[in-house]
Amino acid sequence: MSWSDLERLVADAETSPALQQVLRQCHSRQELLRTARQLGFRLTRADLQNAWMEHHNAAEVQGEDGAAQWAAGVS
Description:
The protein is mainly α. The mean pLDDT is 83. It has helices at 3-15, 17-24, 29-38, 45-62, 64-72.
């Protein structure tokens, strides 16, 4: 498992418009994994699944408005 690589990918994407553009071109989880691996990030399907579950659980705790704010990058 490479949760730290997922965190690093997110941190790098937050500061790199070029990386954001590359990641926006990914239209599936498989494509995202392939692209991330080509960029040197050791991500697995389990990493993405765990991140989605963590986000989903946080959204339930925050309620519908919290999830919408998170998705919009407001919170």
